[in-house]
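To close the chapter, one final illustration. This time we ask the reader to focus less on the individual chains and more on the assembly as a whole: which components sit near each other, and how the overall shape emerges from the parts.
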Amino acid sequence: MEPNGESEVRVVIVGGGFAGLNAALVLGKSNRKDLRIQIIDRRNHHLFQPLLYQVATAGLSPADISTPIRRALRKCRNVQPMLGEVQAIDAESKRLVTSCGDLQYDYLILACGATHSYFGNNQWEERAPGLKTIEQATEIRRRILLAFERAEVETDPDKRKALMTFVVVGGGPTGVELAGALGEISRFTLSQDFRNVDPSRTRIILIEGGDRILKSFDAELSEVATRKLEELGVTVWTSMRVTEIDDDGVFMGEERLNAATVLWAAGIHASPLNTDLDGELDRMGRIKVQSDLSLAAHPEVFVVGDQAHALIAPDNPAPPLAPAAIQMGRAAARNILRDLQSQARQPFAYLDKGMMATIGRAAAIVQFRGQRMSGLLAWLAWCFVHILYLISFRNKALVLAQWMWSYFRFGRGARLITQREWRFMQQDTGRK
Amino acid sequence: MEPNGESEVRVVIVGGGFAGLNAALVLGKSNRKDLRIQIIDRRNHHLFQPLLYQVATAGLSPADISTPIRRALRKCRNVQPMLGEVQAIDAESKRLVTSCGDLQYDYLILACGATHSYFGNNQWEERAPGLKTIEQATEIRRRILLAFERAEVETDPDKRKALMTFVVVGGGPTGVELAGALGEISRFTLSQDFRNVDPSRTRIILIEGGDRILKSFDAELSEVATRKLEELGVTVWTSMRVTEIDDDGVFMGEERLNAATVLWAAGIHASPLNTDLDGELDRMGRIKVQSDLSLAAHPEVFVVGDQAHALIAPDNPAPPLAPAAIQMGRAAARNILRDLQSQARQPFAYLDKGMMATIGRAAAIVQFRGQRMSGLLAWLAWCFVHILYLISFRNKALVLAQWMWSYFRFGRGARLITQREWRFMQQDTGRK
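The assembled structure is written out below.
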């Protein structure tokens, strides 16, 4: 496909996550003077989502795992980052309707990611928040810490038991990491700090619908993870489905569990912007793309990251992991550059970088091209990969070093309960 | 005063700021088995307020300057920290009405501090937030960063000018530090990151009602601070009074200034709990205490910190500074211990630790018992004192080192715009 007749080619990227940011970096560093690139996101920051559970469990501060998108792209002078929301896509007239006005494009890269899905029960969200944004992470942190505080002054033993019960729904990596961190906080970090409650008596229940947790890993590693979680005081219930969530806790069919805190990590669904596009959606709402990551009906529109269903083998789409998103973002950007140089586009080739999940201090599981690893060595590998990534974005080495250190010493640096409201009238002089 | 006939003496401390926390530490470390100490606060964390302006201006994360009150008191086994709100004080029956139920006391230490005052114009708060809590600091950070983002996509030159205008009302240390940090952010940190706006063209106006800023310092240091602010691009207007704040900006009598961001640092008022007490209030709502920091009508009730009007010389109350609050908290606790040992109470003796204010990188002013200092040396003294304090509370040395380093390199690590709401339904799929 040829660029339009004008001297300037306009590329709009929607989303500043792993896929979108890496697409912008490839295009920005190409130094082509004829490119005008805009990247729009609802947030001003790129978020390192794999460590978001650490914010939710008071190990890291939000800023430790975020970088302003502007900052990451400051050297790409032909890229304009914009804070705003895309309201609609008009692919026929190559136009986006956004909160910053209409944006015209020659090429569009959609990298809006996914959010969690309540499988049609969106009313559960208030009771069982998911973990995709900084705000959700600090809300989860608030609920976890508040539950312990309330238990400390609760005199009714049943209510106290419910306050000390934490249910995590969903046994994927996020659910496992949340449950493991909860186990550690209650066993080690908080154990000295309370007078009336014994945080080591916390009940943490991880509920998984399938027959084992961490389905995307080998069965053997699932088993290792389950045992490790049990050592941290987490009860793993498989083949159980949550059928209702109410003010007091969760139902699983006839069974009922009273819990003050319920966290949701059970499913994701791609961005609803996909419904504006001409293409087939899969079960998770991802749109099916061609081998070059563009849409069949609109070769100037690329969809990448968790928003896309891109086959890497027959019947096998790219996994919803950061490395896949990074690779897809770069691949789409390179195909645009090939177009401009009148070269043929290349199909997306996925390089498997493996999968890892951590289950508390000094324990993790790693799976890499058929190899399996667990225990301390896997945890060190996990640390290495995560620190490396964060350093590549900003000079956060010291923060991370500090975190690893306190993590090792069972400290939690960010045990902050912040309120939902900022005004002092209600908060600071809020007397009856 | 003798303790009551029972074997246990109940002390309740309200507030976990500098005064309350230090009172709890003195009582907790006394190792008296007959003491039962409860400390209640609306927040779970002690906040290092002198660095709060750094959170508001994206230099530090909230957790960097906060410590859970529980954590600070974990070794004091006879102290029970409680998260809750005091609704009323019944001094006659020695009883507090709180959100955790009623608390009976033999001794009461009130250390509820102060909040900002709009001098009867509370409706201004939505437009001009003050800076006393973490939530207010992140709200101010959100507004500052959002103003630049909006200016970047604004096409109307008048609106863009208003977006690039920041008004700080009040020329005390908080106002000066906020204005100075704003000057630095716009001149150095953000200057490379925008494409359409030039952050170094930001207008920052510091409005002070009196004839000079930093009234509590010597006139000579005020002058140094004013010049330093001007170097950072801050315009200082003295003898000006804000008479109205509306959606577009501020009025000063007939004059009008259009500004999207208005910050309030103009006055403080002591906790309204003082009105429940039998005693005389001063102009700032502080209650007048005796030389031993107790109330004349209720010698078992001590009032300390910013909530108290404690004379340190004729007509000269203790200043609203952290060192004074720390000393008052400790003095009240020691007088309780003296009561229990049947010793005479001691009058509060204030040890002047000086005052300091920082105006941007490598510049500060220090005043210490008649001595004056400014410039780089004063700034190093400022760093030293603040790091020392934070280290004494937690192993935050590394975080602080990292901060000083990036501060020196014009970086801002916490440039995060977070939303007011955490739910994803409105935020993450919030399409029309």
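Chain B has two domains: 9-116+268-340, 122-266. The two ends of chain B are 68 Å apart (CA to CA). With these observations in hand, you are ready for the problems at the end of the chapter.
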